[in-house]
Specification:
There is one protein chain. Helix content is 47%, strand content 10%. The protein is an alpha+beta fold. The strands form 2 sheets. It has a 4-stranded antiparallel sheet with strand order 1-2-3-4, with helices on one face. The longest helix has 20 residues.
Length: 394
């Protein structure tokens, strides 16, 4: 039997704590408010848990609530942790994916990746998973999303799988799920994808000079950008986001800031006479509204990556924009005597050997200047002044 009575509870006005026994207490605050708490020990830690105000919770109600708390503790349940879990609003997969995208997009340097990350989920995952709570999504549901595209669109399917996993792992870290994403087991429920060499479809370097001649048959900002990309062996994003303050055409140098480079390091591109000529043509189209060298239809925004790809598709070419870097690398390997490390530096590739990377202090600028001059001459069908092509006399 408890120590308190309903009459005594009503008459208590002096601030303090009044025990009913077994940890149940009435707390009277200096302001005259009365509330119930129970003091219990969970996993060796003492906890004071509120049971409600006297205005809404009678002595009998408080005793019943306290008894329920004690029974939970006896079963190994932490009542406070249980309450916190009840207060958490579990998001749907679509809500969680949007939150993950918002949190992480600033760290993604590639604007195309920022847009595609959410687009692939919206296209392939949201129809089946979008309205499900993240706490309810398990392996079979993910497998059913991936199965229709697993063989038909293997690369897309792998990206969707990775992004679903990222959303569910984020949900686990936020306390919305009891486990991380069940991604490992998916491989057992999906067929083996055919192996590919992973290379971008590239135009053979022998066809590049003829393509540039065809490219020059029409004039547009997109065609100038694509020619500049070929002559500098740079990536699409590096060209499309190029700004005039990065270029020193008199010195024949283009300094791309670290923030735009895949490896996160400043990259200096020596410009051939042919590349400088392209930038000079772009300079004639320069407008005060933007510092972008190759602006899009909205002059304050870069042109879309699809603009460059459309030029290739309109020419009935089944190659990628990125593949021109492969064409450049193949030309260096097969038709010149330039060392491989010079070509790799021209492409701004990482040095795979960590020891070599730690000790290398040169960026081969002068050698790359000669290399890019010869590449520019080759692309325009011009015999270079300093011959580097194998099998021909100097």
């Amino acid at each position: 039997m408890g120590k308190l009575t309903a009459l005594r509870v009503k008459s208590l006005n002096e601030p303090g704590r009044y025990s009913d026994g077994d940890g149940l207490m009435l707390v009277v605050t200096p302001g005259g408010t009365k509330k119930w708490i129970i003091r219990i020990t969970v996993a060796g830690k003492r906890r004071d848990i509120g049971l409600g105000s006297l205005k809404t919770t009678t002595l009998a109600d408080a005793r019943e609530a306290a008894d329920q708390m004690r029974r939970k503790v006896a079963r190994g349940i932490d009542p406070l942790a249980e309450r916190r879990a009840e207060r958490i609003v579990i998001p749907t997969f679509q809500e969680a994916a949007t939150a993950v995208h918002e949190e992480h997009k600033a760290a993604w340097k590639n604007g195309k990746h920022q847009a595609q990350w959410l687009t692939t989920l919206r296209t392939y995952a949201f129809p089946a998973l979008g309205k499900k709570l993240v706490s309810e999504i398990e392996g079979p549901a993910i497998r059913d999303v991936l199965a229709p595209i697993w063989l038909a669109k293997p690369e897309t399917a792998r990206r969707v799988r990775q992004r679903i996993g990222a959303v569910l792992d984020w949900s686990y870290a936020k306390g919305f799920r009891a486990t991380e994403a069940p991604m490992r087991s998916l491989s057992k429920g999906l067929p083996r994808q055919p192996k590919k060499d992973g290379h971008f479809e590239a135009m053979p370097y022998s066809e590049v000079p003829a393509f540039i001649i065809k490219l020059r048959e029409k004039s547009s900002m997109g065609r100038l950008a694509l020619e500049a990309l070929i002559l500098t062996a740079t990536r699409s994003g590096e060209i499309r986001l190029a700004r005039w303050d990065e270029l020193d055409l008199a010195a024949g140098l283009w300094t791309i800031p670290a923030a735009r480079m895949k490896m996160g390091r400043v990259h200096i591109v020596p410009l051939s006479a042919e590349a400088i000529d392209v930038f000079r043509h772009a300079e004639k189209l320069r407008i005060p509204a933007t510092d972008l060298v190759f602006y899009g239809q909205n002059v304050k925004r870069p042109m879309s990556d699809m603009t460059l790809l459309k030029i290739l598709r309109d020419s009935d070419l089944d190659v990628t924009v990125h593949g021109f870097r492969s064409a450049f690398r193949d030309w260096v390997a097969e038709k010149t005597d330039y060392p491989g490390e010079v070509a790799e530096t021209a492409l701004a590739h990482a040095i795979p050997n960590k020891v070599e990377a730690a000790y290398r202090r040169t960026d081969f600028l002068e050698k790359r200047r000669a290399l890019m001059r010869d590449w520019g001459a080759y692309c325009l069908g011009i015999k270079p002044k300093r011959q580097r092509v194998r099998g021909e006399k100097n």
